[in-house]
Amino acid sequence: MAITKDFKPNKLSDYLEATGLKGKNFKFVDDLSKEGLLSLFKAAEVLEPYWRSKLNIMNGKVLCTMFFQPSTRTRFSTETAMIRLGGSVITESDPSHNSSVAKDESLWDTLRVVSQYANIIGLRHPDDKQVFEALPAAEVPVISCGWGNITHPTQGLLDMYTVYRAFGRFEGLRVMVTSPDLTRARSGHSFALGLARMGAEIVYSGPKNLKTPDLIKGKLNDMGAKYEEHFDLNKKEQGELITTCDLVYLPGCSVPVGQDARDVFMEKAANYYIDLETLEKAKKKTGKIIGIMHSLPRFKGEFDFRIDNTEHELYFKQISFSVAIRMALIASMIGIS
Ligand code: CP
């Protein structure tokens, strides 16, 4: 540390403003520059002590959440964040049946109407194309709480914030993103975009016929990201690759029960199974504690649940860091004076 001309006390509004998010929609993690992401993390650190109590900086502001797909974490965490900031929440967890969408109202009109009530909207939707077409109708900022198979940026942010708090850096980290189906890994895509922005290395492992979509790889290439793709590894090869990494991220399966894509995921899950022995062996060999991250919900057959009670577990810790970062996001997008 050295004294500089800019030396001054921390100010939340400076960090929020420096994200550049005020009044904008949040669609992809790479909507934020490296500096913007760091400012958001700094804001979240200031807000973190209040994740279980309350501030009063969003008094009189309203968040509307509309989730056209099921959710536990994203909806509750986003709503909790607004409540902890002192704002209010209006919510519809099943708009296809309980809102006027059931009377065939378009998403365009829905966003325009809801904008008259709320100061910010949190939207989850299965069809990203439909959302992008309707987005210009919104008159207040809209947060992607998961759109299609492609983007889930608040999950990406909470994953990034967990890494920031655990390691205090991104450069020099090697992070595996592995799944039996990388085409539908929207949380994995979001995390990868953030990792690329901050200079970490990404190590993909998955089946060749279900690899990371071109849209995401195009974005990674545009950022000059350091990434590798490994296909159809056997269990031994996957174990060896894991040993070269600092973190392993499992994006899980966001496909609801009863759909074919979910069966494909489950059938191939065994090839990507992570057992505790692999992590213990890696620690013995390299001295490194490999962190296991998962966007949850998880399923038996994806990884060894004995990891829950070890130093490798990060997936429940991710949840506890999710409120502070969403508080920072909401306050950045609405803005405080
Ligand atoms: N991680 C995640 O998106 O979980 P939910 O589907 O429960 O929101």
TrEMBL record:
Alphabetized UniProt keyword annotations: Transferase
Matches recorded under Gene3D superfamilies: Aspartate/ornithine carbamoyltransferase (3.40.50.1370)
Pfam family of the protein (one): OTCace_N
Domain Aspartate/ornithine carbamoyltransferase carbamoyl-P binding positions: 24-164
EC class of the enzyme, as a word: transferase
A GO molecular-function annotation: aspartate carbamoyltransferase activity
EC number: 2.1.3.2
Domain of life, source organism: Bacteria
Similarity-based family: Belongs to the aspartate/ornithine carbamoyltransferase superfamily.
Protein name: Aspartate carbamoyltransferase catalytic chain
Organism ancestry: Bacteria, Bacillati, Bacillota, Clostridia, Eubacteriales
